[in-house]
């Protein structure tokens, strides 16, 4: 416990502030080492994966911002965060995506035969996600799953408390998933992470951007052309870049 507190304090000192949201500054490899340790010690941890849209949203919702900045890990999901950090003269090591973190946690659960619980996405998506885990990661102990369209939290929270998963993946979209985790994380000592639309991609329901888009950091552009209804949400990116510029000039 004492060691954990020391480690947490050390990590918080290494955070980089981007327009109010405080990001951890470590490599993906280092982050994975922390996660391995957390799983081995059955620590209770909360991971937030934040992109420019979330940073802007947190500026308007002080409760959401507080939840993010109090999380154990805040990782830079999106090239916009890396660019913003560099522009402000406080560069971050590298981008770490929610999707890759989800994969790492599932692979690790498979390797260590750990218990996993899945919450969120549409009923057919969550079923496909569960099926994929059972098929491709047979050593994972999938203790339960539930879609993200429920009225009553209680049965889900009771199931989590009873099954005691080691990893809880919450795909309710932001800020709903972060509010949910903050409210219930004491029900189980697990790694809790909000993974947004990752189940849609993981299950194969939605395609991830092809490698060439990933390499050029143009995943957002791929999403825009394949899901034009997201255009409104994408306007967050130029707005975010403008705020970064203003902040840079202010500094
Ligand atoms: N979702 C959910 N319950 C809700 C609202 C959303 O389970 O009440 C799911 C939705 O089905 C999708 C995910 O949350 O799987 C959000 O996806 P989106 O692509 O909007 O999230 P992002 O990755 O951009 O945060």
UniProtKB/TrEMBL annotation:
Pathway: Cell wall biogenesis; teichoic acid biosynthesis
CDD domains hit by this protein: Glyco_transf_WecG_TagA (cd06533)
Signal peptide: none
Keyword NAD part of the UniProt annotation: no
Group of enzyme by EC: transferase
Pfam families: Glyco_tran_WecG
EC number(s) given by UniProt: 2.4.1.187
Keywords linked to the UniProt accession: Cell wall biogenesis/degradation, Glycosyltransferase, Teichoic acid biosynthesis, Transferase
Gene Ontology biological process: cell wall organization; teichoic acid biosynthetic process
GO molecular function per UniProt: N-acetylglucosaminyldiphosphoundecaprenol N-acetyl-beta-D-mannosaminyltransferase activity
Catalytic activity from the UniProt record: UDP-N-acetyl-alpha-D-mannosamine + N-acetyl-alpha-D-glucosaminyl-di-trans,octa-cis-undecaprenyl diphosphate = N-acetyl-beta-D-mannosaminyl-(1->4)-N-acetyl-alpha-D-glucosaminyl di-trans,octa-cis-undecaprenyl diphosphate + UDP + H(+)
InterPro entries xref list: TagA_TarA, WecG_TagA_CpsF
Functional summary from the UniProt entry: Catalyzes the conversion of GlcNAc-PP-undecaprenol into ManNAc-GlcNAc-PP-undecaprenol, the first committed lipid intermediate in the de novo synthesis of teichoic acid.
Family: Belongs to the glycosyltransferase 26 family. TagA/TarA subfamily.
HAMAP family per record: TagA_TarA (MF_02070)
Name assigned to this protein: N-acetylglucosaminyldiphosphoundecaprenol N-acetyl-beta-D-mannosaminyltransferase
Organism: Companilactobacillus bobalius DSM 19674
């Amino acid at each position: 416990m004492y060691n954990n507190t020391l480690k947490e304090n050390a990590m918080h000192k290494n955070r980089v502030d981007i327009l109010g949201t405080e990001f951890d500054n470590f490599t993906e490899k280092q982050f994975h080492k922390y996660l391995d340790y957390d799983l081995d010690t059955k620590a209770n941890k909360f991971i937030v994966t934040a992109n420019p849209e979330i940073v802007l949203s947190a500026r308007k919702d002080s409760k959401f911002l507080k939840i993010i900045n109090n999380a154990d890990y805040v990782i830079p999901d999106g090239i916009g965060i890396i660019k913003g950090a560099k522009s402000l003269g406080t560069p971050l090591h590298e981008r770490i995506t929610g999707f890759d973190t989800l994969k790492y946690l599932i692979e690790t659960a498979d390797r260590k035969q750990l218990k996993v619980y899945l919450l969120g996405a549409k009923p057919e998506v969550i079923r496909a996600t569960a099926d994929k885990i059972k098929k491709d990661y047979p050593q994972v102990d999938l203790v339960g799953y539930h879609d993200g369209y429920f009225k009553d939290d209680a049965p889900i929270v009771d199931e989590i408390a009873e099954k005691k998963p080691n990893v809880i993946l919450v795909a309710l979209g932001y800020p709903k998933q972060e509010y949910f985790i903050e409210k219930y994380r004491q029900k189980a000592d697990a790694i809790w992470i909000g993974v947004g639309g990752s189940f849609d991609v993981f299950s194969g329901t939605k395609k991830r951007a092809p490698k060439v888009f990933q390499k050029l950091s143009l995943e957002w552009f791929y999403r825009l052309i394949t899901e034009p209804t997201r255009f409104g949400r994408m306007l967050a990116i130029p707005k975010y870049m403008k705020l970064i510029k203003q902040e840079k000039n202010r500094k």
